[in-house]
Design brief:
It comes from Streptomyces colonosanans. One of its GO terms (biological process) is regulation of DNA-templated transcription. This is Helix-turn-helix transcriptional regulator. One of its GO terms (molecular function) is ATP binding. By secondary structure, the chain is mainly alpha-helical. Among the domains are: 184 residues, 3-Layer(aba) Sandwich (Rossmann fold), CATH 3.40.50; 59 residues; 83 residues, Arc Repressor Mutant, subunit A; 107 residues; 60 residues, Winged helix-like DNA-binding domain superfamily/Winged helix DNA-binding domain (Arc Repressor Mutant, subunit A, Orthogonal Bundle), CATH 1.10.10.10. It has 48 helices and 7 strands. A hairpin with an 8-residue loop joins strand 6 and strand 7. Helix 23 packs antiparallel against helix 24 and helix 24 packs antiparallel against helix 25. The longest helix is centred in the first third of the chain and has 22 residues. The termini are far apart.
Length: 936
């Protein structure tokens, strides 16, 4: 098939055509744009054809002729079939340019008349294909698109390879895909490269990540799947998109989801892919592989212990068939693809599976594995099996594997008799709490609702309500109905009331934005817990009270932290993200004790990881990223923030919080556009969740990103909203959000130094009361800009010099660099030499790339900026000249608006246009123009 058109630039690829292939596509696109060829390779179902279609749709628009072929296995024995696909429709256009022997040989091969063969007409055919491609290329660029190279008939493959190796310097490119079966590090695709142009780039299509599989399933309509199910789909599919979609379809069609511990249903379509190779196994080898498929970490020793006496020979047979692969770095048995294991298990009967699990329940050395196999080998309730599973769940919990503990707990509940102690509801609730710890909120919520549908005991019901509330995360407004029901179930039991009032404290903070109410609820929860002898609940409530008081700037905060750190401590609270350790970290970082804060948060992060507490890990990653950001280690902060964001995306927990921190990190050490996008996402999520606490944080991040992007007016809009929100919330400690300096600086940028000074004065009062030294230094830096705007450059320079020295002493590397930048910028406006070298050095040390780019721009445009002349005003519109004239008189934006009968926003927008037209940065340059006029 041919496509003829004038050569033009390729259009950009639509991002919704492929998922998770951005880097791959970028590399292939660059190769094609440079005139090279691309060979896409990977296993069946991995998405090679999707990539090929996407690249063809994009790059095919840049060439004159597109030649396509796509073979199938059933057609691979037909000679010259692929050649006919490629050249059949265009041979008439070039036939007259071929020598007679070549034309005859080619027409014979394409039409099947004359019985042309490579043996008889080999050289003539080879030269004919080469000549035909050169003739097409003489009219304009040619793109050959060949999918499934492995099924091309040998004759066509030979002819295409012959031409490809000899097309150097000719505008003919190849975009091909081939199925490979070997490991990613192997070189199976090399033999196809030898049949490709010399400049061909091999591109491996790798498995999708779990997040990308989730996105793919959503995109294809398999929405609402629990994260634990998506995890199982990803594991079973090995990240293969075709397999993942087939598994998702099978789940959607299944009347009942698989029980805990059971594999996913494998549809017939996928079983067929491996059934041929499985049928080649002997019956004994198949049984041996079935045992391996049921084991978590199968080894030869395990198979022998499970009664498979000839395991070594039988696994060797399986390896020869490509069902198993060698694993040099470990003695275990590894299936060539997880789907083979899943298909083996799915093909087995229920009786065969129980027999395999029974054998493994005695063969496995790990107590968790023994218990799991015992449960899967048993039917009905059995207190002995339930007890063993409960013990195994506790072991998994202690090992830091809460997800495993949740699965074992649900198995234990299934085997627990109704009247046993602990009962089935208690086991399910423990499993739900383990699922929460593992970040599997969907599973936890489902289990809790199942308990609420059947349980009558108040303790079980309150515990289930707490799981429902905790699973909501920051979207607590969506579970408001749970609180009155939980209070009713709690009655007057102080132990149960502790749990409810602790969550009510969080609700007051997140949903209502009422810090004082939150503090009172936290104190009540601590008192109730003390009366009930619930030390864990008391410690959590005290830690919450301490964090709230810290954010409020309450004088009791240090004393409450000490109470929360008193002995005896509960090890489960020690690394809880809402525990006393986290409260102490927040106090340290707000008090400018960065070294101690880093030490504290690093220890908490290590413990959370050891215990497998995903939400705590996310929280502490953000805390460590924040600490590194304060210290000016922007690259490290960016990496930590992205790690936290990745976890948040995978679990659905704390996405707004992680997006806020990552936005700040991007604005400091990454890309401003990404910072803006993340901040806007965080604002949208916080508004959707009704989370006023994080709405203020998200708006502060948006304001900061806008400031770094040079949008002072946008920064002011965002940060004025933060000021209003925090006033309503009752937050008085400026170290909580640290947005005040940004607001003052932005206000100066839009010509509102008076309002900027008001912000500085009001904030300084709170900062002095609480001893927030770094906040005071940043306020001095902002006040220097106010002084500069008022025509007091000497006073401004003194304040900046002092602020820079104090920030350096406190260890705030990025803020120190910003002070040095402001000082250098101030000096460019004064007579005499000026240099940005110090600011550039400090920003480079911090790896603060957005700021460094600003410095580099200033070096080019700042000192070389010509003085303003009165004639420059001639380029302005009438309203713009009026606004400039009033600025020259010293009028502020509100006064200008009143005198010209326009809004303040119109004044701000007008000044922005004036700055752009005159090539200046702020109203300070307009004041300089006025001074120049006066001296003239």
């Amino acid at each position: 098939m041919t496509v003829r058109r004038d050569v033009k630039e390729p259009v950009r690829l639509r991002s919704d055509l492929v998922i998770g292939r951005e880097e791959l596509l970028a590399g292939a696109r660059e190769q094609l744009a440079g005139g090279g060829s691309v060979l896409v390779h990977g296993p069946a179902g991995i998405g090679k054809s999707t990539v090929l279609r996407a690249l063809t749709a994009e790059y095919g628009k840049a060439v004159r002729t597109v030649l396509r072929c796509s073979a199938t296995e059933s057609e691979s024995h037909l000679p010259f079939l692929a050649l006919a696909d490629l050249l059949g429709l265009v041979v008439d256009q070039v036939a007259d340019r071929l020598p007679a022997p070549q034309r005859t040989a080619l027409e014979s091969a394409l039409t099947g008349r004359g019985e042309s063969t490579l043996q008889r007409d080999g050289l003539a055919l080879r030269l004919a294909v080469l000549s035909a491609l050169r003739a097409l290329a003489a009219r304009g660029p040619v793109l050959i698109v060949a999918d499934d190279l492995q099924w091309l008939d040998p004759a066509s493959t030979e002819l295409l390879g012959f031409a490809a190796r000899r097309l150097g310097g000719t505008p003919v490119q190849m975009l091909c895909a081939v199925r490979t079966h070997t490991e990613p590090q192997a070189r199976e695709h090399d033999r196809y490269l030898r049949s490709s142009p010399p400049d061909t780039l091999p591109v491996s299509v790798n498995p999708l990540s779990r997040g990308q599989v989730a996105e793919l399933l959503d995109h294809r309509g398999h929405t609402g799947l629990p994260r634990s199910t998506v995890r199982d789909i990803h594991r079973t599919s090995g990240g293969n998109p075709l397999f993942a979609l087939e598994l998702g379809r099978a789940l959607a069609e299944s009347p009942t989801p698989p029980s805990p511990g059971e594999p996913l249903p494998v549809p017939t379509s996928l079983r067929t892919l491996v059934r041929g190779r499985l049928e080649a196994l002997s019956e004994d080898a198949r049984r041996t592989l079935l045992v391996a498929s049921a084991g978590a970490r199968p080894t030869l020793a395990l198979l022998l212990a499970a009664g498979r006496e000839n395991a070594e020979a039988e696994t060797a047979q399986a390896a020869a068939l490509g069902l198993l692969v060698a694993k040099p770095d470990a003695p275990g048995i590894r299936f060539a693809h997880p789907l083979i294991s899943a298909a083996l298990y799915a093909e087995a009967s229920a009786q065969e599976r129980r027999a395999v699990h029974a054998a493994l329940s005695t063969a496995a050395s790990d107590p968790i594995e023994r218990a799991r196999h015992l449960a899967l080998a048993s039917t009905g309730t059995d207190p002995r099996v339930a007890a063993q599973l409960g013990e195994a769940a506790a072991v998994a919990r202690d090992r830091g594997a809460p997800s495993v503990a949740a699965g074992l707990g649900l198995l234990a509940a299934r085997h627990t008799p109704v009247n046993a102690v602990p009962g089935p509801h208690e086991r399910r609730l423990q499993a739900a709490e383990d699922a929460l710890t593992a970040g599997e909120t969907d599973l936890a919520r489902d289990v809790a609702h199942e308990v609420l549908a059947h349980a009558m005991d108040p303790a079980d019901r309150v515990r289930a309500w707490m799981v429902v509330i905790d699973a909501a995360g920051h979207a607590m407004a969506g579970v408001d109905a749970a609180f009155p029901q939980a209070l009713a179930d709690a009655g007057d039991d102080p132990r149960l009331l502790t749990r409810v009032h602790y969550r009510l404290a969080w609700r007051a903070l997140i949903v209502q934005g009422d810090f004082e109410q939150a503090r009172r609820e936290g104190a009540l929860a601590a008192d109730l817990a003390a009366r009930a002898g619930e030390r864990r609940g008391e410690l959590l409530a005290l830690a919450f009270q301490a964090q709230t008081e810290t954010l409020m700037g309450h004088p009791d905060a240090p004393a409450t932290i000490e109470r929360a750190l008193d002995e005896p401590q509960d090890p489960r609270v020690a690394c809880d993200h809402n525990g006393a350790g986290a409260a102490r970290f927040r106090w340290l970082i707000m008090s400018d004790q960065l070294t101690e804060a880093r030490k504290t948060i690093s220890a908490l992060l290590r413990e959370a990881r050891r215990r497998g507490i995903v939400e705590a890990e996310m929280h502490f990653l953000r805390g460590l990223a924040e600490t590194e950001l304060r210290a000016g280690h922007c690259g490290r902060a960016l990496a930590l923030a992205h790690e936290s964001l990745g976890l948040a995306r995978d679990t659905g927990i704390g996405e707004a919080a992680s997006a806020v921190l990552t936005s700040l990190a991007e604005a400091a050490g990454g890309e401003v556009d990404r910072a803006l996008a993340l901040a806007r996402e965080a604002v949208a999520r916080a508004e959707e969740d009704g989370d006023v606490l994080y709405l203020s944080r998200a708006l502060a991040a948006l304001g900061h990103a806008r400031l770094v992007a040079g949008d002072a007016a946008g920064a002011v809009r965002s940060l004025r909203r933060v000021r209003e929100l925090e006033a309503g919330l009752g937050i008085t400690d400026p170290a909580r959000g640290r947005w005040h300096g940004d607001l003052a600086e932005s206000l100066v940028g839009i010509g509102e130094p008076a309002e900027a000074q008001e912000v500085i004065d009001a904030t300084r009062t709170g900062a002095l009361r609480l001893g927030r030294e770094s906040v005071l230094a940043v306020l001095d830096r902002a006040e220097a800009l106010v002084r500069s705007a008022r025509g007091e450059p000497d006073a401004a320079a003194r304040r900046l010099t002092s602020a820079q020295a104090r920030l350096a002493k406190l260890g705030y590397g990025l803020e120190e660099a910003r002070a040095a930048y402001a000082l250098a910028d101030l000096r460019t406006r004064r007579p005499g030499p000026a240099s940005y070298d110090e600011a550039a050095r400090l920003f480079r040390r911090c790896r603060a790339m957005p700021w460094l780019r600003q410095v580099e721009t200033a070096v080019v445009t700042g000192p070389a900026r010509p003085p303003l002349a009165a004639a420059a005003l001639d380029s302005l519109a009438a309203t713009e000249r009026q606004v400039v004239a009033l600025v020259m008189e010293g009028a502020m934006n509100r006064e200008i608006a009143a005198r010209l009968f326009i809004s303040v926003k119109t004044v701000e927008a007008t000044l922005t246009r004036v700055y752009r037209k005159l090539g200046i940065r702020s109203r300070v340059d307009i004041v300089r123009l006025a001074a120049g006029r006066g001296s003239g």
